[in-house]
Specification:
400 residues, Rossmann fold, 17 helices, 14 strands, 46% helix, elongated
């Protein structure tokens, strides 16, 4: 089984080839959650993810003959970029098999690191099967994204760095997909500090490791905002380590992850993908579990599609009451809309959208229903805008 020595040797191999990322306290998040939170900024790596640690450690240990043959990996994102980048740096041919649905930005970025990209399969499992066939046919070395001791040892260096930076951490909260990161980190952390608690976090839509370890039967979904941990089949090697060295596994929902992403963007001015926010999502969902403890969170990746990010920010504003949809009923006469918009403006809100509704409404025929999307300062301000509209003689309510 993976040991501290393996991880320390990996750290020596990685030295100078990737960042020892900052691990610093977030005072604001600490105040909001009731725990003392330290963030490990793995989203600052060159490929914006911790995945290149495992890839670099694996590739650095290949024999000369294996380097000549080249490597192949299966991934829809961060592992692909990690393998491609370090293969290019070491002068090794890299073939990456990606599912057909992979966003174009990830495909182009992987190609940009010099890899040959093969689009095959609708799921990661189908891509994996094709990658194994290609490996066999072309004599390529298969680099598994998580179920490989060299890869797990590389990922474990995150734990080494965190405990060197903040030796008195009491809990590490780590996102779990296939389990490579938490297996490596738990091995390093428990060896350095046996009393430390290791908590894994999965999205409730992909609870594979929770089911495997706890014997539960949570159903698996088809998609999640945290695509980096959307793994259906947990790693065999990783699962054995998790069963022995991880204290607990928690599930978080999509809304928890979205909220955590927006908070990190607003408070820490740092961009994380869904998987990177899973740790903070667990603290938001289970605050009593971590109250008063020194908690280390890994912001494990920052690769996210800009359109998805825009949607998450907007939904976050709705949750915070800074974006609201109001329904206003008025007489269908000239000047009504002008009075409504003037009333909203006087109340200090900004109108983002206006929709006039005559046909699809239950109001009397001489009346009109107007739907407004307004920017406000929060929930109390929404109520002030509604009161101003009612005082001006309009029927007004918030739509949810």
């Amino acid at each position: 089984m993976l040991s501290l020595t393996d991880i320390e040797q990996a750290a020596q191999r990685l030295h100078g080839h990737l960042l020892n990322t900052p691990c610093v306290e977030s005072r604001t998040l600490s105040q909001l959650t009731g725990a003392q939170i330290y963030l490990k900024f793995e989203n600052l790596q060159y490929t914006a993810s911790f995945k290149e640690r495992g890839a670099c450690n694996k590739l650095a240990q290949l024999t000369e003959a294996e380097r000549q043959r080249g490597v192949i990996a299966m991934s829809a994102g961060n592992h692909a970029q990690g393998v491609a980048y370090h293969a290019q740096r070491l002068g090794i041919r890299a073939v990456i098999v990606m599912p057909r649905f992979t966003p174009g930005v990830k495909i182009e970025r992987t190609r940009g690191f010099g890899a040959e990209v093969v689009l095959q399969g609708s799921t990661l499992d189908e891509s994996r099967a094709h990658a194994l066939q290609l490996a066999e046919r072309e004599g390529l070395v298969f680099v598994h994204p998580y179920d490989d001791e060299a890869v797990m040892a590389g990922q474990g260096t995150v734990g080494l760095e965190m405990l060197h930076a903040v030796p008195d951490l009491e809990v590490l909260v780590i996102a779990v997909g296939g389990g490579g990161l938490i297996a490596g980190m738990a091995t390093a952390a428990k060896a350095l500090k046996p009393g430390i608690e290791i908590i894994g976090v999965q999205t409730s839509r992909f609870p594979g490791m929770v089911n495997a370890i706890k014997g539960t039967h949570h159903p698996q979904g088809t998609s999640t905002i945290a695509d980096g941990i959307a793994v259906g089949t947990p790693g065999v090697l990783a699962q054995a380590i998790i069963a022995r060295r991880v204290d607990d596994l928690l599930l978080v929902d999509e809304g928890d992850i979205e909220q955590a992403m927006v908070m990190l963007l607003e408070i820490e001015k740092t961009l994380v993908e869904g998987a990177g926010a899973a740790g903070l999502a667990a603290l938001l969902k289970y605050p009593a579990r971590f109250a008063g403890l020194k908690v280390g969170l890994v912001l494990c990746g920052g690769n996210i599609d800009p359109l998805l990010l825009a949607a998450i920010i907007e939904r976050g504003m709705v949750r915070a009451g800074r974006l609201a949809r109001l329904r206003v009923g008025a007489r269908d006469v000239p000047g009504s809309l002008a009075r409504i918009t003037a009333t909203v403006a006087d109340a200090g809100a900004n109108i983002e959208e206006v929709h006039h509704q005559r046909a699809f409404t239950m109001l009397a025929a001489l009346n009109v229903e107007i739907e407004l999307v307004v920017q406000t300062r929060g929930r109390p301000h929404i109520e002030q805008v509604l009161q101003a509209l009612r005082a001006a003689g309009f029927e007004a309510e918030e739509q949810h």
